[in-house]
Every structure is written in C-alpha cells, then in structure tokens.
Amino acid sequence: FTVPDTFVPSASTQNMSPREQDAMRRYVAQISALLNRAWIKPGSLAGLDLRVTAIFYVDFAGRISQIRFQPGSGNAAFDTSVRAAFSKIRGAGPTPSGSGQEIRISFTMLD
Questions:
Q1: Which of 28, 43, 47, 108 has its CA 20 to 30 A from that of 13?
Q2: Closest alpha carbon to 80 in 34, 56, 104, 45
Q3: Residue 50 Rama label (left phi>0; alpha psi -120 to 50; beta)
C-alpha cells in the first residue's frame, strides 16, 4: 500500500513564500509517515484497485479533525481502515505556519 503525501496550496497558503511552502510539504510528509505506520490495510482486499483521498484539517497545534473522504473508495472496509489510521494518531505537532491548514492525503491499495 502507499500513502502519498499531497500538499496543494490553498487560499490560506498561497501567500506563503517558497520556503514556507517547502516546510508545509515536509510537514505533510511527516503526517503521511505517521498515517502509513498506523494504517492496517485489510488483507481481504488484496489485489483490489481501491483509492480514497482524505481531506482533513490540522489546527495550529497539530490536532487533526474534520476528516472526510472525497471521493470515497466505494468499499466500506477500505474506508474504515483509513479512518482507523487517523484515530491512532494523537497529533502531528504544530504546523510550520503557526495556523490551521486543510490537507489532502491519498491512500491506495496495492498488491
């Protein structure tokens, strides 16, 4: 399985300098690594082509909330396994910007 990190500048980050955007990319990679370690992929889904993009909010202190899937994978067990990974993460540490950010991370089921 893979948990690629994605940092897409939003309205709140478009005014960031290139250095600040690089710091956010590293921060998202850190969150991605935490999720990768926490995610237990359902063995019963091996070989299926499933993908879900999780969109969530991280406040200035690193607390994760407002988790939603857009789009969902169409497979309840897969989506539940991704949501469970988020529940295992206590926090991501303060954001580099010192303000809250919306983040997108995609989860893909691979052989």
A1: 108
A2: 45
A3: beta
Q: pLDDT confidence of 1, banded at 50, 70, 90?
A: very low
Residues 6+ apart with CB under 8 A from 59: 65, 95, 100
Quickly state the pLDDT bin for 3 (edges 50, 70, 90): very low
In 1-111, where do the E strands start and end?
5-6, 50-58, 64-69, 101-109
Count CB atoms within 10 A of the CB of residue 71: 8
Rounded Cα distance between 76 and 52, Å, is 11
3-state secondary structure of 36: helix
pLDDT, tens digit (0-9, with 9 covering 90-100), for 31-78? 999 998 999 989 899 888 899 999 999 999 999 999 999 888 999 999
Distance CA 77, CA 74 (A): 9
